[in-house]
Amino acid sequence: MTSAPMSGRKAQAARNDELILRAARAVFTADPGAPIAAVAERAGVGISALYRRYPSKEALLQKLCGDGLKLYIEITERALADDGDPWEAFAGYLRGIVDGDTSSLTIKLAGTFTPTEELGRDSARASELATEVHHRAVAAGVLRPDVTPADIALLFEQLASIKLGGEERTSELRHRYLALAMDALRVPPGHRELPSHPPTDEDLSARWRPAS
Known about the structure:
By secondary structure, this protein is mainly alpha-helical. The chain has ten helices and no strands. The relative contact order is 0.09.
């Protein structure tokens, strides 16, 4: 059974909400102290339209991090449902979290708002699932046992800190260094060809140039 199409007003509201959330993520991961008006400007919506959906900056931050946690849970549950090769299931979890980029929210927004009870429950669930997928890989003998779930969490944050060039290039580099880390995490250690090409000295030095 397919759901009925949304009315024009509801469809526009849904589009606005998507624009607002995408803009909020970009604005607040660049500057957590930015005003909510900067989100409306980037989204191309009126401030009144934003406030109708999110009455405060705090509510908007709660929504962003709530969506991030739900995505993390979805990716981890998918890895746990994979009954195939144990290493590939764990590797799929790692790649999925890097693609989801939920750690960028952690890096920038942790401690900037008051979590709701729902966020607390989802956070506990995400932690429980991360521990489960980690322990399963260790028990299968494919993940080195001296690595902890907290180590993996900080590895995700290290990868999320990589920002060079546009979105596509940033994604390529994150997966390049994830592949390098995965070779060290695996039992026995791997030695695969790294994806993409490394950054050049020019790429690194370009970060120091003021934005035009």
